[in-house]
Specification:
This protein has 13 helices and 4 strands. It is mainly alpha-helical and about 300 residues long. The protein folds into 2 domains: about 80 residues, no CATH class; about 180 residues, Cytochrome c-like domain (Cytochrome Bc1 Complex, Chain D, domain 2, Orthogonal Bundle). The protein has a two-stranded antiparallel sheet with strand order 1-2. It has a two-stranded antiparallel sheet with strand order 3-4. Helix 1 packs antiparallel against helix 2 and helix 9 crosses helix 10. The radius of gyration is 35 Å and the shape is elongated. This is Cbb3-type cytochrome c oxidase subunit.
């Protein structure tokens, strides 16, 4: 692969480019010297009996455009990269232009978000302008998973119900957006016991939230739930530090019912929330977090979005 980025290839490209321009100039010179033939100025081709193809020189306006094109190409190659590895007199690069544009955008963004820097979390949540900006950030970055109404879907949390896997404080939400999250429910069937034990534990889990269940199976599964208590707690109320869901409410992220719970216990589940650090600036993340928080917890005088 190094053969294709060596100096030899650079020189080859430069030579071919220069020779192409010189060839264009030579063609112009040859065409400019051509004159109209006095006697028979045809190519010898005839169509439809008397339609003859003339051998006239190129029009002057066309020649002028050709000359301008060649001159423009030569000037361009002097100023911009084009002759192999030659950077050009202006030193322009696409990477440099991109970085300059990004710097200008960052400066404008910093100016736009500066008025919100001194606001507290509560002030951000209660500010209508902040919520409007946060809503746009949410639609552009989060709606593809959580939905435009933030109510989520199977496997994607509902952000409007106040149920938080990793904690619902502003600092928790900022950390989630910044660093992302990875929730891993390992397959627990082997730890629980037999297939019947898994079914009993599933019914016990359903009983914790008062969901329809087999009461006898739930009683039998209570002792086996100890295998799950390390993450979900002995009372089943979850652990925000691990992202372990609260099993005592009726919020089911991956499906509801005996079969769905059995599948979770048997197969486990891996959920990934991508990190937005680097994609969004710190002020943007803080404002986005304030918007997400406002969806489930009313700010002062601001109704929750539901």
């Amino acid at each position: 692969m190094s053969d294709f980025v060596s100096r030899g290839w650079s020189l080859y490209i430069a030579i071919v480019t220069v020779l192409s321009l010189l060839a264009c100039l030579a063609l112009l010179v040859i065409a400019a010297r051509r004159k109209v033939m006095a006697a028979d100025n045809t190519t010898g081709h005839t169509w439809d009996v008397d339609l003859k193809e003339l051998n006239n020189p190129l029009p002057r306006w066309w020649m002028g455009l050709f000359v301008l094109t060649v001159v423009f190409g030569a000037i361009y190659l002097v100023l911009y990269p084009g002759l192999g590895a030659n950077p050009g007199r202006l030193g322009w690069t696409s990477e440099g232009q991109y970085e300059a544009e990004q710097a200008r955008a960052a400066a404008k963004m910093a100016e736009r978000y500066a008025p919100f820097a001194a606001m507290s979390d509560e002030q951000l949540i209660g500010n209508a302008e902040v919520r409007a900006i946060g809503e746009r950030l949410f639609l552009n970055n989060c709606a593809m998973c959580h939905g435009s109404d933030a109510r989520g879907s199977k496997g994607f949390p509902n952000l409007t119900d106040g149920d938080w896997l990793w904690g619902g404080e502003q600092a928790n939400i900022v950390q989630t957006i910044t660093q992302g999250r990875q929730g891993n429910m390992p397959p627990m069937a082997a730890a629980v016991g037999s297939a019947e034990d898994v079914r009993n534990v599933a019914n016990y889990v359903l009983s914790l939230s008062g969901s329809p269940h087999n009461n006898i199976a739930a009683q039998l599964g209570r002792s086996k739930f100890v295998a799950c208590a390390a993450c979900h707690g002995a009372d089943g109320k979850g652990n925000a530090a691990l992202g372990a869901p609260n099993l005592t409410d009726k919020n089911w992220l991956h499906g509801w019912g005996e079969e769905a719970v059995i599948r979770m216990i048997s197969e486990g589940k891996l959920n990934v929330m991508p990190a937005f650090e680097g994609r969004l600036s710190e002020p943007q993340i803080r404002i986005l977090a304030a918007h997400v928080k406002s969806l489930s917890v009313p700010a002062a005088g601001v109704p929750a979005s539901r």
